[in-house]
Design brief:
Its main location: cytoplasm. It contains 7 helices and 12 strands. The chain is α/β, with parallel strands linked by helices and 255 residues long. It folds into 2 domains: 75 residues, 2-Layer Sandwich (Nucleotidyltransferase, domain 5); 117 residues, 2-Layer Sandwich (Nucleotidyltransferase, domain 5). The strands form 2 sheets. It has a 7-stranded mixed sheet with strand order 6-7-10-9-8-11-12, sandwiched between helices. Strands 3-2-1-4-5 form a 5-stranded mixed sheet, with helices on both faces. The longest helix is centred in the last third of the chain and has 27 residues. It is globular. It starts with 14 loop residues before the first strand and ends with a helix. The N terminus is likely disordered.
Length: 255
Protein backbone atom coordinates (compact mmCIF):
# COMPACT_ATOMS: atom_id res chain seq x y z
CA UNK A 1 0.00 0.00 0.00
CA UNK A 2 1.45 3.34 -0.98
CA UNK A 3 1.65 6.12 1.57
CA UNK A 4 -1.08 8.78 1.41
CA UNK A 5 -0.24 11.79 -0.70
CA UNK A 6 0.87 14.89 1.14
CA UNK A 7 -0.95 17.16 -1.34
CA UNK A 8 -4.15 18.88 -0.33
CA UNK A 9 -7.18 16.94 -1.56
CA UNK A 10 -10.47 18.52 -2.48
CA UNK A 11 -12.76 16.14 -0.57
CA UNK A 12 -15.82 17.55 -2.35
CA UNK A 13 -14.70 15.92 -5.62
CA UNK A 14 -12.77 12.87 -4.42
CA UNK A 15 -13.74 9.69 -6.28
CA UNK A 16 -12.95 6.07 -5.50
CA UNK A 17 -12.87 3.90 -8.65
CA UNK A 18 -12.94 0.11 -8.27
CA UNK A 19 -12.17 -2.44 -11.00
CA UNK A 20 -13.37 -5.84 -9.75
CA UNK A 21 -11.90 -8.31 -12.22
CA UNK A 22 -11.80 -12.09 -12.43
CA UNK A 23 -8.59 -12.44 -10.43
CA UNK A 24 -8.00 -9.14 -8.62
CA UNK A 25 -9.69 -5.98 -7.40
CA UNK A 26 -7.90 -2.76 -8.33
CA UNK A 27 -8.81 0.63 -6.96
CA UNK A 28 -7.75 4.22 -7.34
CA UNK A 29 -8.56 7.42 -5.47
CA UNK A 30 -8.82 10.52 -7.65
CA UNK A 31 -8.89 14.01 -6.14
CA UNK A 32 -10.30 15.77 -9.18
CA UNK A 33 -6.86 16.48 -10.62
CA UNK A 34 -4.91 13.23 -10.42
CA UNK A 35 -4.73 9.76 -8.92
CA UNK A 36 -3.39 10.09 -5.38
CA UNK A 37 -3.71 6.44 -4.32
CA UNK A 38 -3.84 3.11 -6.15
CA UNK A 39 -3.79 -0.46 -4.96
CA UNK A 40 -4.94 -4.01 -5.66
CA UNK A 41 -5.90 -7.17 -3.84
CA UNK A 42 -6.77 -10.70 -4.96
CA UNK A 43 -10.45 -11.60 -5.22
CA UNK A 44 -9.91 -14.41 -2.74
CA UNK A 45 -8.76 -11.87 -0.17
CA UNK A 46 -11.38 -9.21 -0.81
CA UNK A 47 -12.48 -9.13 2.83
CA UNK A 48 -9.19 -7.37 3.48
CA UNK A 49 -10.32 -4.55 1.20
CA UNK A 50 -12.07 -2.73 4.04
CA UNK A 51 -8.81 -2.27 5.90
CA UNK A 52 -7.11 -0.97 2.75
CA UNK A 53 -9.90 1.53 2.12
CA UNK A 54 -9.77 2.72 5.71
CA UNK A 55 -6.23 3.94 5.04
CA UNK A 56 -7.39 6.19 2.21
CA UNK A 57 -8.21 9.87 2.44
CA UNK A 58 -11.97 10.53 2.55
CA UNK A 59 -13.93 10.04 -0.67
CA UNK A 60 -17.39 11.27 -1.56
CA UNK A 61 -18.44 8.86 -4.29
CA UNK A 62 -17.61 5.41 -5.66
CA UNK A 63 -17.79 4.06 -9.20
CA UNK A 64 -17.41 0.32 -9.73
CA UNK A 65 -16.92 -2.12 -12.58
CA UNK A 66 -17.53 -5.73 -11.54
CA UNK A 67 -17.16 -8.79 -13.76
CA UNK A 68 -16.48 -11.25 -10.93
CA UNK A 69 -20.09 -12.29 -10.37
CA UNK A 70 -22.81 -11.84 -7.78
CA UNK A 71 -20.72 -12.94 -4.80
CA UNK A 72 -18.15 -10.20 -5.45
CA UNK A 73 -20.97 -7.72 -6.03
CA UNK A 74 -22.62 -8.55 -2.71
CA UNK A 75 -19.35 -8.49 -0.77
CA UNK A 76 -18.29 -5.15 -2.24
CA UNK A 77 -21.63 -3.56 -1.42
CA UNK A 78 -21.34 -4.69 2.20
CA UNK A 79 -17.72 -3.54 2.43
CA UNK A 80 -18.62 -0.08 1.12
CA UNK A 81 -21.79 0.42 3.16
CA UNK A 82 -20.01 1.94 6.22
CA UNK A 83 -18.79 4.87 4.10
CA UNK A 84 -22.38 5.93 3.29
CA UNK A 85 -21.41 7.43 -0.06
CA UNK A 86 -23.12 7.16 -3.43
CA UNK A 87 -22.23 3.91 -5.23
CA UNK A 88 -22.43 3.82 -9.02
CA UNK A 89 -22.18 0.37 -10.56
CA UNK A 90 -21.55 0.77 -14.26
CA UNK A 91 -23.29 -1.26 -16.94
CA UNK A 92 -22.42 -1.36 -20.60
CA UNK A 93 -24.31 1.20 -22.67
CA UNK A 94 -25.13 1.55 -26.36
CA UNK A 95 -23.32 4.91 -26.44
CA UNK A 96 -21.26 6.68 -23.78
CA UNK A 97 -18.37 9.15 -23.57
CA UNK A 98 -18.09 9.33 -27.36
CA UNK A 99 -17.94 5.54 -27.87
CA UNK A 100 -20.64 3.65 -29.76
CA UNK A 101 -21.14 -0.01 -28.89
CA UNK A 102 -21.30 -2.17 -32.02
CA UNK A 103 -22.04 -5.45 -30.20
CA UNK A 104 -25.14 -7.28 -31.50
CA UNK A 105 -26.34 -7.36 -27.89
CA UNK A 106 -24.61 -4.30 -26.37
CA UNK A 107 -25.47 -5.22 -22.78
CA UNK A 108 -23.50 -8.48 -23.08
CA UNK A 109 -20.19 -6.72 -23.53
CA UNK A 110 -18.25 -6.90 -20.27
CA UNK A 111 -18.35 -3.60 -18.41
CA UNK A 112 -14.57 -3.78 -17.89
CA UNK A 113 -14.04 -3.96 -21.67
CA UNK A 114 -16.46 -1.07 -22.09
CA UNK A 115 -14.58 1.08 -19.57
CA UNK A 116 -11.26 0.23 -21.24
CA UNK A 117 -12.63 1.23 -24.65
CA UNK A 118 -13.80 4.56 -23.24
CA UNK A 119 -10.38 5.20 -21.69
CA UNK A 120 -8.57 4.41 -24.93
CA UNK A 121 -10.89 6.66 -26.95
CA UNK A 122 -10.50 9.49 -24.43
CA UNK A 123 -6.72 9.15 -24.68
CA UNK A 124 -6.25 8.69 -28.45
CA UNK A 125 -9.40 9.82 -30.29
CA UNK A 126 -8.38 7.59 -33.23
CA UNK A 127 -8.72 4.02 -34.46
CA UNK A 128 -6.84 1.55 -32.34
CA UNK A 129 -6.66 -1.91 -30.83
CA UNK A 130 -7.47 -2.00 -27.12
CA UNK A 131 -5.69 -4.96 -25.52
CA UNK A 132 -6.17 -6.06 -21.91
CA UNK A 133 -4.07 -8.99 -20.69
CA UNK A 134 -5.10 -10.65 -17.44
CA UNK A 135 -7.02 -13.83 -16.64
CA UNK A 136 -8.29 -13.50 -20.20
CA UNK A 137 -6.87 -11.45 -23.04
CA UNK A 138 -9.24 -9.22 -24.98
CA UNK A 139 -8.36 -7.48 -28.23
CA UNK A 140 -11.00 -4.91 -29.17
CA UNK A 141 -11.27 -2.63 -32.20
CA UNK A 142 -12.16 1.08 -32.11
CA UNK A 143 -12.76 3.04 -35.31
CA UNK A 144 -11.79 6.63 -36.09
CA UNK A 145 -15.30 7.70 -35.11
CA UNK A 146 -15.27 5.94 -31.74
CA UNK A 147 -17.25 2.90 -32.84
CA UNK A 148 -16.48 -0.40 -31.13
CA UNK A 149 -16.36 -2.75 -34.10
CA UNK A 150 -15.92 -5.99 -32.13
CA UNK A 151 -13.10 -7.98 -30.64
CA UNK A 152 -11.78 -11.35 -29.53
CA UNK A 153 -11.37 -13.09 -26.16
CA UNK A 154 -8.85 -15.82 -25.42
CA UNK A 155 -7.26 -17.28 -22.28
CA UNK A 156 -4.61 -15.13 -20.66
CA UNK A 157 -1.02 -16.30 -20.03
CA UNK A 158 -1.53 -18.17 -16.76
CA UNK A 159 -4.85 -19.69 -17.78
CA UNK A 160 -3.42 -20.89 -21.08
CA UNK A 161 -0.48 -22.61 -19.40
CA UNK A 162 -2.62 -24.08 -16.61
CA UNK A 163 -5.19 -25.47 -19.03
CA UNK A 164 -2.50 -27.27 -21.02
CA UNK A 165 -0.82 -28.69 -17.92
CA UNK A 166 -4.16 -29.80 -16.41
CA UNK A 167 -5.62 -31.39 -19.52
CA UNK A 168 -2.56 -33.02 -21.09
CA UNK A 169 -1.39 -35.92 -18.93
CA UNK A 170 1.91 -36.20 -20.72
CA UNK A 171 2.87 -32.59 -19.99
CA UNK A 172 4.24 -31.74 -16.59
CA UNK A 173 6.41 -28.70 -15.97
CA UNK A 174 8.90 -28.10 -13.19
CA UNK A 175 9.24 -24.35 -13.81
CA UNK A 176 7.75 -21.35 -15.56
CA UNK A 177 9.91 -21.52 -18.67
CA UNK A 178 11.23 -18.69 -20.81
CA UNK A 179 10.73 -17.53 -24.36
CA UNK A 180 12.82 -19.08 -27.12
CA UNK A 181 12.31 -18.95 -30.87
CA UNK A 182 13.03 -22.69 -31.06
CA UNK A 183 12.42 -24.15 -27.57
CA UNK A 184 14.38 -27.27 -26.70
CA UNK A 185 12.61 -28.26 -23.48
CA UNK A 186 8.99 -28.64 -22.36
CA UNK A 187 8.89 -25.67 -19.98
CA UNK A 188 10.17 -23.26 -22.62
CA UNK A 189 7.99 -24.85 -25.29
CA UNK A 190 4.84 -24.16 -23.25
CA UNK A 191 5.87 -20.63 -22.32
CA UNK A 192 6.97 -19.77 -25.86
CA UNK A 193 3.79 -21.23 -27.33
CA UNK A 194 1.72 -19.06 -25.00
CA UNK A 195 3.67 -15.94 -26.00
CA UNK A 196 3.38 -16.76 -29.71
CA UNK A 197 -0.36 -17.39 -29.41
CA UNK A 198 -1.11 -14.15 -27.56
CA UNK A 199 1.23 -11.86 -29.48
CA UNK A 200 0.15 -13.53 -32.72
CA UNK A 201 -3.51 -12.83 -31.95
CA UNK A 202 -2.72 -9.15 -31.41
CA UNK A 203 -0.74 -8.96 -34.65
CA UNK A 204 -3.50 -10.77 -36.57
CA UNK A 205 -6.12 -8.33 -35.33
CA UNK A 206 -3.78 -5.46 -36.19
CA UNK A 207 -3.48 -6.74 -39.75
CA UNK A 208 -7.27 -6.97 -40.01
CA UNK A 209 -7.88 -3.44 -38.76
CA UNK A 210 -5.14 -2.02 -40.99
CA UNK A 211 -6.52 -3.79 -44.07
CA UNK A 212 -10.26 -3.36 -43.51
CA UNK A 213 -10.09 0.25 -42.32
CA UNK A 214 -7.53 1.45 -44.87
CA UNK A 215 -5.11 2.58 -42.20
CA UNK A 216 -1.58 1.17 -42.29
CA UNK A 217 -0.68 2.24 -38.76
CA UNK A 218 -3.44 2.00 -36.16
CA UNK A 219 -2.21 2.35 -32.58
CA UNK A 220 -2.26 -0.51 -30.05
CA UNK A 221 -3.06 0.25 -26.41
CA UNK A 222 -2.01 -2.51 -24.00
CA UNK A 223 -3.02 -2.81 -20.35
CA UNK A 224 -3.55 -5.50 -17.72
CA UNK A 225 -1.61 -7.31 -15.04
CA UNK A 226 0.20 -9.59 -17.50
CA UNK A 227 0.88 -7.00 -20.20
CA UNK A 228 4.63 -7.06 -19.52
CA UNK A 229 4.84 -10.77 -20.44
CA UNK A 230 3.52 -10.18 -23.95
CA UNK A 231 4.15 -6.62 -25.09
CA UNK A 232 7.88 -7.03 -25.82
CA UNK A 233 6.96 -9.70 -28.35
CA UNK A 234 4.52 -7.45 -30.23
CA UNK A 235 6.56 -5.95 -33.05
CA UNK A 236 4.11 -3.18 -33.84
CA UNK A 237 3.52 0.38 -32.52
CA UNK A 238 1.93 0.20 -29.07
CA UNK A 239 1.47 2.19 -25.90
CA UNK A 240 1.27 0.81 -22.37
CA UNK A 241 -1.56 2.35 -20.36
CA UNK A 242 -1.73 1.17 -16.76
CA UNK A 243 -5.13 0.63 -15.16
CA UNK A 244 -7.12 1.27 -18.32
CA UNK A 245 -10.39 0.27 -16.63
CA UNK A 246 -9.85 2.77 -13.80
CA UNK A 247 -9.22 5.50 -16.36
CA UNK A 248 -12.45 4.57 -18.11
CA UNK A 249 -14.36 4.65 -14.83
CA UNK A 250 -13.02 8.15 -14.21
CA UNK A 251 -14.19 9.27 -17.66
CA UNK A 252 -17.66 7.79 -17.07
CA UNK A 253 -17.92 9.46 -13.67
CA UNK A 254 -17.04 12.82 -15.22
CA UNK A 255 -19.47 12.57 -18.15
Amino acid sequence: MTAPSSCQMDHSTSLLAIDSGNTAIKWGLHDGLRWVEKGSILQGERKMLRHALQQLSPFTSVIISNVAGRSANDDLRKLLDPWQVHQRWITTQTRQCGVHNGYVFPERLGCDRWAALIAAWRHLKRRCLVVNIGTAMTVDVLSDTGEFRGGIILPGPKLMQQALANQADGIRTAGCGKFQSFPDNTEDAIFSGMIQALSGAIEKMYALIAFNMDNPSPMIVISGGDAALVCDHVHLPYQIMDNLVLEGLLAIARE
